[in-house]
Amino acid sequence: MKIFLITLSILCIGFRGFSQQVDTLNIYSSSMKKEVKTLVIRPSSSSEKKLPTVYILHGYSGYPKRTLTQDIPSLLALSETLKMMFILPDGNYDSWYVDSESQNSKYETFIAKELVDFVQNQYKSDPSKTAIMGWSMGGHGALYIGSRHQDTFKAIGSLCGVMDFSPFGKEYGVPKTLGDNPKNWSKYTVMSQIEKLKTSSQKIFISCGTEDPLIAQNRNLHQQLLLLNIPHIYEERPGEHNAAYWSKAAITQLMEINQFFSTPELSFTTPNLMNKIIHTNPETLFDPTPFAFSHATSTTTKGNYVFISGQSGGQDLKHTLSKDFRTQVKFALSNLETVLKAYHLKPENVLKITVLIVDHNPEKLAIWTAEMHKIWKHNKFPASTLIPVPKLALDDMLVEVDAIAFVPE
Fold first, then answer.
1. Whole-model pTM above 0.70?
2. CATH of 16-262, one of 3.20.19.10, 3.40.50.1000, 2.60.40.350, 3.40.50.1820
């Protein structure tokens, strides 16, 4: 996780000079039976290539044109420079981007389904490079919607985001959407969706100013994500809850999203990778698959290797170690996955592991095998060496696993 301060040169571009890039649309929502004003910003140069697309949600009381002229005035220049398309829907002043159970306000459905379908049908939008971000109320909306629609949004980002509107929701329009009882609001907050991110492969970006009243909420989310070993990029920099902060932070986040989309993501389920990593289990040897390893692995193409240091079963930044062996095994494998995700890799990219187990016995072997099967779901296991040891680096460490992963060109 990263906490860093950045100084940027801001691109200040007038709205009129790039008017040919901006489409002003009224898109019909069948779920709400009304039209929603939406701006589509795209590079002026025409191309047959599909474009990375970012849905940008405004804050409380905002609207799309204000986003373009006041909140993030650099969007026009960024679209041209990064060759990205930006979609700016109107969030109806204070919808909080949720689906109301009582009112005709279905902004989660509109954005995640109806709007995305419209854009992908009418524009050259790349479904595999689609992100959602926003600030304040929109930061809430981006993380809330993004965590609930992981197949749609490959990256999600928040700037000065509201992680829990319960303490002040009555002053910011929440009752008209979710009712008067704050006890009924919690399931609509970002904090209520964290568990959904435990198995997510999304890139998560969070940024907040150190003088922002919402900094405590953002730090709390950051700590919760750390405790759950959920990879994310967290940024703090001097600033308050205003456009002076998020107009600059948005540039950083959009560049990070663009960089993420520019890095090829490898998936074992794609035919190319399946053909490039070979798992060999000769018929004259016993079948190692039930024990969660292969006799040998090899590659058939050029590529690079990632050498991963031994990962223990330590939890969080304090490296807390449970006394329970299975718990340590789960965290060791989770920590291994965290490192792999930093390279946009999955467990199936691993060619070889070495496992060190303190006071090894058949019961511990059964636990290790069972947990391996939960991670390597395609039964294409790495080559493996298990070494019983009397002790590891720390007194309470019970297991450690290192790995060599392959990144095909």
1. no
2. 3.40.50.1820
